[in-house]
Write a structure and sequence with these properties.
This is Multicopper oxidase CueO. Helices cover about 5% and strands about 40% of the residues. With about 500 residues, the protein is mainly β. It folds into two domains: about 15-370, Cupredoxins -  blue copper proteins (Immunoglobulin-like, Sandwich), CATH 2.60.40.420; about 380-500, Immunoglobulin-like, CATH 2.60.40.420. Residues about 5-25 have low confidence and may be disordered. The structure holds CU-O-CU linkage and copper (II) ion (CU).
């Protein structure tokens, strides 16, 4: 029998969750995991930028890459070593920077001692490359062959994923998707960016080069010796279930560095912000005005027109593409992005270094693609995200069912619009594979939240809320997933399979 995190819960060692749930902390699902390590003073470590991955070869059809998933010992906290599981041994992994319409072929080599699966989040990807949670890359290292699971298309040691990138420019990311183990494996480092570019976007006068910066935000906790802390069954009965709301931790990493600092010119910058945290939501704000976040893009690419935000609420897996204008500050000024959902705790600091020439601007019209079609008479489906007891399973469910890879909860025809409604009990960031969607209504009203604009693949749904989205799948037939992107919820079975036909 495989020891799954769900199996552990099903064994009955479940502590009562009363009082530690979302009721007490409506803005933040999850239990805080505190570091034992001595933590650094914030805003000392420079902001790293993940390296851009280079192809090993290219031909008329595609660019070919190889990534090695391996352990590495990194100095994340100054003076301490943390063992990570990283793509190329990095945290975050290397950034793929690719052109729309040009195929990316990635050979993923697993040199870890656990099985892995790679999913390109936001990718319009054929099913065999989408990262079905049982299409395991088995490790060649170690005595036992990783997690014992069957029923998927297993490969030994490596697997080749093909991404057609036949989609508009957008900030995607790739991460582990192993059934029942996604949360601990992403936590230990298996995540990175995949940026798609196209002409429409490149012709805009937006900041580029070293003024276009990814910000991958993820919270982590550290043991006294620097090792990652993550609740595990071996720590005693009930440890994992105590964290079934989700693991939130006390160190905020940006691009893998704790509370970093970055020097900027007094000009506009473009930031591609990804919340790669397992469970933590953020409400990002500047500690002192006048800077705001001018949103230009969402999960699925450019908005039709820019939207200005004083604060940015970002749930796990969401991306916000924003422009910040530092010309409103003086050289020598410091401005800090804080998280209003965590007592204004600092996330990242900017030091304004000097004045500089800025020939960028934010056009009033960004994209012609982002127009909402609102067809009538479409197929409707409801997806309910709730805590549940399904078949002896204590955990999280969709439509009353724990994830079962053998069960297709829906058969969805390609090329037709559907309206999907997502219904929640507590906070759940809901993600759909294969196609982006547009939010139609929230809480029964077509007055959306400020963060619902554009094409999204993950939507932050508040407690006891209903959100309706318009979705259409194209091109690829096969098995795909809808799930909660709170990774502890996902591992505890809040995932459902559907089939495109
Ligand atoms: Cu980012 Cu199915 O996940
Ligand atoms: Cu959830």
């Amino acid at each position: 029998m495989r020891l799954s995190r769900r199996g552990f819960l099903a064994a009955g060692a479940v502590a009562t969750l009363a009082g530690c749930g979302a009721e007490a902390k409506p803005a933040q699902a999850g239990e805080l995991l505190r570091s034992k390590a001595k933590l650094p003073t914030p805003f000392q470590v420079p902001l790293p930028i993940p390296p851009v991955k280079k192809p090993t070869r290219s031909d008329a059809k595609a660019d070919y890459y190889q990534v090695v998933q391996r352990k590495a010992s990194l100095e994340i906290l100054p003076g301490l070593k943390t063992e990570v599981m990283g793509y190329d041994g990095l945290l975050p992994g290397p950034t793929f920077d690719v052109r729309s319409g040009r195929t990316t072929v990635v050979e993923q080599v697993n040199e870890l001692d656990v099985s892995t699966v790679v999913h390109l989040h936001g990718g319009h990807t054929p099913a065999p490359s989408d990262g079905w949670p049982l299409d395991l890359i088995m490790p060649t290292n170690g005595q036992h062959a990783g997690h014992h699971m069957s029923g998927g298309d297993m490969t030994m040691g490596k697997r080749t994923y093909t991404y057609p990138n036949r989609q508009r420019a957008a900030t995607l990311w790739y991460h582990d998707h192993t059934m029942d183990y996604t949360a601990p494996q992403v936590y230990r480092g298996l995540f990175g960016l995949h940026i798609i570019r196209d002409d429409e976007e490149e012709n805009l006068p937006l900041p580029k080069g070293d003024r276009e910066i990814p910000l991958v935000i993820a919270d982590r906790a550290f043991d006294a010796d620097g090792a990652f802390l993550y609740p595990a069954a071996k720590d005693g009965p009930g440890v994992e279930s105590a964290y079934m709301e989700g693991v939130v931790a006390d160190v905020t990493l940006v691009n893998g560095a704790p509370w970093p600092v970055h020097e900027v010119d007094a000009v506009r910058y473009r930031f591609r912000i990804l919340n790669a945290s397992n469970a933590r939501r953020y409400e990002l704000a500047f500690d002192k005005g006048p800077a705001t976040f001018v949103q230009i893009g969402s999960d699925g690419g450019l908005l039709d027109k820019p939207v200005e935000h004083r604060t940015l609420v970002i749930a796990p897996a969401e991306r916000f593409d924003v422009v910040v204008d530092f010309s409103q500050y003086q050289p020598g000024d410091e401005v800090t992005i804080v998280n209003k959902l965590d007592k204004n705790a600092g996330v990242l600091r900017f030091k304004i270094a000097r004045k500089a020439v800025d020939d960028t601007s934010i056009p009033a019209t960004l994209s012609s693609y982002a127009v909402t079609p609102r067809p009538s008479g479409v197929v409707r489906r409801e997806w309910q995200f709730r805590r549940g007891d399904a078949g002896g399973h204590r955990g999280w469910t969709i439509n009353g069912k724990a994830f079962d890879p053998a069960v297709m909860q829906a058969q969805v025809k390609l090329d037709q619009y559907e309206v999907w409604s997502f219904v929640t009990d507590v906070h759940h960031p809901v993600h759909v594979h294969l196609a982006p969607f547009q939010v139609l209504t929230r809480g029964g009203s077509s007055k959306l939240s400020a963060y619902d604009h554009g094409w999204k693949d993950t939507v932050d749904i508040r407690p006891a809320e209903v959100v309706e989205v318009l979705v259409k799948f194209t091109a690829h037939k096969g098995k795909y997933l809808i799930h909660c992107h709170n990774l502890e919820h996902e591992d505890m079975a809040m995932m459902a399979a559907f089939e495109t036909i």
